[in-house]
Amino acid sequence: MVSAATAIGFLLIMVVNTVLAAVAIRFFRLRLSTQWGAVVYTVVFVPLLYVVTTILLSGFVGFGGSGVEDRTTALMLVWAIPFALAVSLEIFWMPAPDEIELPEQAR
């Protein structure tokens, strides 16, 4: 049985990973000129962010210890679900990058 501290730890990691992924995806879509560039950067850099946040925050959860017996379930909870949430937030809730006015860059 999972303790309350483990469940709260997983929720914390899920929320942090979702927010980081949503902000990173939005940044890539707004700043990169090609659609594939945003996709490639998202696929490469968001998992790197997940590695860092999971390593920093998983000490509270106890990956590999008594936290969760199935490591696949743990990775689905802290990586796959937040990524899917962030992508769906970006696609369905945020305005398209063409509708956003960016400030002129100073030289």
Task: Walk me through the structure.
- This is DUF7991 domain-containing protein.
- By secondary structure, this protein is mostly helical.
- It has one domain.
- Helices cover 73% and strands 0% of the residues.
- The protein contains three helices and no strands.
- The longest helix is centred in the N-terminal third of the chain and has 28 residues, at 4-31.
- The N and C termini lie far apart (59 Å).
- The relative contact order is 0.18.
Describe the structure in brief.
By secondary structure, this protein is mainly α.
The CA-CA distance between the termini, in Å, is 59 Å
What is the approximate shape? elongated
Q: Which blocks of ≥5 consecutive residues have pLDDT under 50?
A: none
Oligomer: single chain
Major beta-sheet overview: none
Order of helices and strands: HHH
Mean of residue pLDDT values: 83
Helix content: over 70%
Question: What structural class should be given to the helix and strand makeup?
Answer: mainly alpha
Alpha carbon gyration radius: 16 Å
Query: Could you tell me the strand content as a percent range?
Result: under 5%
What is the total tally of β strands?
A: 0
Count of alpha/pi helices: 3
Domain module count:
1
